[in-house]
Amino acid sequence: MSNIKKCAGKESLQRMNYLLQLANQLITQNKSSYIASLQYTNLMINISKKAVQRLDIDIKRNTCKGCRSILIPGITSKIRIKKKKMNVHCLNCSTLKIFEVKNPDYLPWSQKNESLVEIINYTPHR
């Protein structure tokens, strides 16, 4: 037996990563492929729900809760900073997301060093 640790849900993580990259690539190349990009992000969110795996906070912040499109500043979203709050306005469905920007040194808990328990290398050793 080998001492290689197995990762639960590795295939679904890889598929969600691929769908996110594909949706991001489609929306940045041309605006006409918006519907295909929307379907890929919708599929990515549904896979994460079915596999009971949480999406990263950066992915959650960059997807619209109304229409589930990727929020790219200048292409699919408009960003305004007013009164120490960042307003992200989706240009497709007019949904507004508000983030506070009072503390410039703020990091979400998942991005802090104490949140890491273990780093698993998925590539096989040769």
TrEMBL record:
The keyword Zinc applies. GO terms for cellular component: endoribonuclease complex; ribonucleoprotein complex. One of its GO terms (biological process) is tRNA processing. InterPro entries: Rpr2/Snm1/Rpp21. Gene3D superfamilies: 6.20.50.20. The keyword Metal-binding applies. Pfam families: Rpr2 (PF04032). Keywords: Metal-binding, tRNA processing, Zinc. GO terms for molecular function: metal ion binding. Belongs to the eukaryotic/archaeal RNase P protein component 4 family. This is Uncharacterized protein.
